[in-house]
Amino acid sequence: LQINAVTLRDAEDRVSGAVLVFHDLTQVRKLESARQEFVANVSHELRTPLSLIKGAVEMLIDGQERTEEASGRLLKIVDRHANRLGLLIDDLLLLAQLDSGRVRLNLQTVSARTLVREVEDDLGARAAARRIELRNEVPEEFLVRADADRVRQVFFNLIDNALKYGRDGGKVQIAARAHAERIEFTVRDDGPGVPPAALARVFERFYRVDRARAREQGGTGLGLAIVKHVVQAHGGAVRCESVVGRGAAFVFSLPRANATAAD
Ligand code: ADP
Question: Pocket residues for ligand 1 (CB within 6 Å)?
């Protein structure tokens, strides 16, 4: 709490009163410490791949790893972590744009099923590698009023996570339900799920349930923060439902293009 005080004086310069102003700084402090934490997280996330790249390059320069195979392995490390840095920077830039409100949504009537199919094309090989069955159960006639590129990214991030954290040989289902004015989408997997204490926190920037595991999977820790921002920019909401050991479901809503009066 910050208190500013001013004394009031009359014509003869006698103190006749005082004005006290109380500022509640709780919110300001909270924002400030969230900002500091974010900067610390970003630095750490950028430093990790960078130091791995540096380590590999130093070994190449030293020339101790002379065989073709050994240097090939080092170059693959450089390539992998340089890619990771690229992804991280792309995600950070996108979040910064969403934060500043500079992102203008290009709203159109969009077929959600088509967006999911496009993401399926991108991720099909990854699903096949883990024998995970992708099920696009979104009905053809479900149209949303949305920015296609942004919403494709929402589906991509959620399906990508479902494939990363899902079970080998399991299934990932993308389903939809129409309400009067919005359509609710669910991306469901049958992996380990999310513990109750983490259900809300997974949408925070850089929050991970299992740090080591998540990093191993190559994620940036920003995927769900982006999902939340994009969905909210469309006037919708997103939540995670899960029973540990039985999988996770991410549920979000978007405005319906052909809204009807009846629910
Ligand atoms: P990351 O790049 O770490 O995947 P995200 O923002 O996409 O970042 O997800 C944040 C965290 O939420 C993940 O690290 C993981 O712990 C958890 N998570 C996300 N999706 C799932 C899922 N389908 N099943 C279990 N945990 C998940």
Answer: 157, 161-162, 165, 189, 191, 193-194, 202, 207-210, 214, 219-225, 248
Tokens of 152: 């494709």
Is the Cβ–Cβ distance between 220 and 205 less than 8 Å?
Answer: no
Sign of CA dihedral 173, 174, 179, 182: positive
Closest CA to 150 of 30, 230, 38: 230
For residues 144 and 255, give the distance between their C-alpha atoms in angstroms, rounded to a whole number. 6
The C-alpha atoms of residue 113 and residue 212 are separated, in whole angstroms, by: 34
176 in Cβ contact with 185 (< 8 Å):
yes
Residue 165 backbone zone (phi > 0: left; psi -120 to 50: alpha; other: beta) = alpha
Distance, CA of 192 to CA of 247 (rounded, Å): 5
Span from the CA of 241 to the centroid of ligand 1 (angstroms): 13
Q: What is the pLDDT of residues 78-125, one digit of tens each?
A: 999 999 999 999 999 999 988 888 788 999 999 999 999 999 999 999
Q: What is the pTM of this model?
A: 0.84
Longest dimension (CA), the chain: 93
Substitution candidate for ligand 1 out of 202, 204, 207, 250 with most atoms within 8 A of CB: 202
Distance, CA 79 to ligand 1 centroid (Å)?
24
